[in-house]
Design brief:
There is one protein chain. This protein has one domain: Hypothetical protein af1432 (Orthogonal Bundle). It is globular and about 65 Å long. It is mainly α and 220 residues long. It has helices at 2-36, 38-57, 62-74, 84-87, 95-101, 104-112, 119-126, 148-163, 174-183, 191-212. The structure holds fe (ii) ion (2 copies). Residues 43, 75-76, 157, 161 line the site of one fe (ii) ion.
């Protein structure tokens, strides 16, 4: 009996160590990407928090939550393979540069799939630029062909990109970014993910406004 208890404890300890190693590796990858493109690391951390909240609200299974978190953190890791002249170009990308940029989900998939137990997360990374109407890339998947984690990352990635400041432009106001999400609901984005995210983001925004006392409610 004692031996069984000891073995169970040992297994739990090993599982916790593996989990810890995964987390450290992911943080290290995230830092690497941060070194290459300063905005990306913070962006990924915000996405991971939102991604888990949206996934939980949508009733995604518990074992999938971690995959959503991983995919949100590492969704743009493939940008490591994109030349700086393209990644940091202040000008509009040429067709050739854009074709290179569109390779980042496949590069990211090729990296993330090497992590043991992250096959599903790697597919979320691969498909995070698909559109619900099939007009996205790299595979042109549509509707529920796109894995749920990828549909979630697509919405929160777009929102965070729209509202973040860049060296060459000011981020959009919250209400305008929400308006654009709603416009693309059902074409670019999964409607249920958009609705869920807007609920969460609006609550968060209301909290910020309540704290600062400057708020206006967002009509969605
Ligand atoms: Fe991306
Ligand atoms: Fe992103």
């Amino acid at each position: 009996m004692k031996t069984l208890q000891h073995s169970t404890l040992r297994v739990k300890e090993l599982e916790a160590r593996i989990e810890g190693m995964h987390t450290s590796l992911i943080c290290a990858f995230n830092q690497l990407l941060d070194l290459k493109d300063l905005n990306t690391g913070f962006h990924s951390t915000r996405l991971a928090e939102w991604g888990v909240r949206v996934a939980r609200d949508l009733g995604v299974g518990r074992e999938c939550l971690r995959d959503v978190e991983m995919a949100a953190l590492l969704h743009d890791i493939g940008k490591m393979g994109i030349p700086d002249s393209v990644l940091k170009s202040p000008a509009r990308l040429t067709d050739q540069q854009w074709a290179l940029m569109k390779k980042h989900p496949e590069y990211g998939w090729a990296i993330v799939r090497l992590f043991p137990e992250f096959e599903r997360a790697s597919l979320f990374v691969l498909h995070h630029h698909e559109h619900i109407d099939g007009a996205g890339y790299p595979a042109g998947l549509a509707g529920t062909e796109i894995p749920i984690g990828a549909r979630i990352v697509a919405v929160i990635d777009a929102f965070d990109a729209m509202t973040s400041n860049r060296p060459y432009r000011q981020g959009l106001p919250f209400e305008e970014a929400i308006r654009r999400l709603v416009l693309a609901r059902g074409t670019q984005f999964d409607p249920s993910v958009v609705d869920c995210f807007i609920r969460i983001a609006s609550e968060e925004q209301a909290g910020v406004f309540a704290a600062t006392g400057t708020g206006v409610a967002v009509a969605v």
